[in-house]
Amino acid sequence: ASCSWDGTVRLWCLETAKSLQVLSAGSHSVRGVAFSPCGAFLATTGLDGSVWMWDVCTGSRLRSFLGHARAANSASFSPNGKLLVSAGDDWTVRVWDIFGGTHVESTRLEEDSRALCCSVVQDDELDRATVLVGTSHGGVHVWRLSENTADHSWPAHAAAVNAICHCAADATFVTASSDKTLKKWSGQWQEVLTFCGHTGAVNGACVCPLGRRLVSASDDFTCRVWDYATGACLLDMRHHTNIVLCAAFSPDGGCVASGGRDGAVVVWAADTGEVVQALPRHSDWVTGVAFLGDGSALLSASWDFTARLWDLNLASFVALAGHSGALTGVQAAPSGTRAYTTSMDGTLRIWELPSARCLSVVTAHADPTNGLALSHSGGMLATCSDAGRVSVWDAAEGRQLVCLTGHSDTVLQCHYAPDSSRVVSVSHDGSVRLWDVPRRLRAAAHGRAVTGVAALPSRSAADPPRAADGVLASCSVDGSVKVWTADGRTAVLAVHAGGAANACAFTPGGDGVAAGCEDGTVVLWDLAGQ
After folding, report:
1. What is the dihedral sign for C-alpha 311, 315, 318, 324?
2. Which residue has the higher pLDDT, 58 or 456?
3. Are the CB atoms for 266 and 248 separated by under 8 Å?
């Protein structure tokens, strides 16, 4: 199949070089064309942002996928034929369900970086598809996503699930619910234990770093400390005069900080429950607390529109002010040099610590943003909203990587799995959802626009080893052709085609790479001999 600026797509017989069929895509030029793995469908992308799917046998148009705000440049089917990926001038790469005709998810590139080409390959080791994207800025983006769009869901509690936390020591999770219980789950999401005793909804939970104890915060005005292995209640503490909304262990597990609707932030001993510090109150509810570094500093977030950075040695604070709505969450980067806050004003703010200077304001959601979670490396963060959405962001740049949809009600909290490959979210709809989080890797691949990307074909374990370590290829209008390692960080081969290169592909055996050039030549390199 070929596509043209004249708005047509032609199907050709390779044996006779005769045109079999001409498909009319309207008055706008057609930028890209791709066959489905089974060969029954054809996808086209247009200058007007259209993405269409055609029946190859009849030439009829089956579906239109609407979403790109500018020209759609390239399309590629997933190896199982269920998903279609499109890349556009609107800085986005979008994933579509070809049978339902629905938009599944999308990722956004950096500002003014147009997505010119894309390719999808199966990653057998991770059981995920990998999307390769070439950009107008010369970058290649590697984006991993699940073949089934990353969503597992089950009814965890009889009422709303208000909070979730994980235990790094044994890779288990805890959910807290309005049904007055907490539940412990295995890494395979089998229920292990139920913690019973609260007489009101449970709003927050945290497992101590060593994995021995669990603290919970409840509507019954109390915090409870539990034995994490047996579920026995060790302490039942009433340090607040109103509903307790949040609690967190210090890094050494020796103290707990809690906050509630009375505006108080209380630091108390995890073993005895004795109050260590009662800090000056916020003027409204305290919705989040988080220790920094060695535990000598603490962050708190409040409905008074501010967060506070506390020096616990001096009992003094610096205010992080700027939100125009109540704060719903606060987290600190592992380095302790940055803080992140979310608010009912729909924004995510990134702060420099200890100066409390606001570095960036991001419109995270069109509706109230309810909380956030940092990946364990601090490189990504997730936010959740009243509309049932979870968004994943580049923590350094505040750029949205993907938006995950599926909950039918407000998402109250989210949390990263220990390996940061998944996000867990909890909702008013009573469900817990586990999402495979797309990981996008970036390589500064070329000096000018990237015009082609390719990946080695899938192979079985019985196939002979390939000659090259590289599994990704890219080419550019600067004439360069490069072969990359799987993580997109190391170029194992860099050659020059002699002129602008428009497309690239691996040989079926994986021992060669070819480039098609603007001067009409095709160049083939032997990867074994380079």
Report:
1. positive
2. 58
3. no
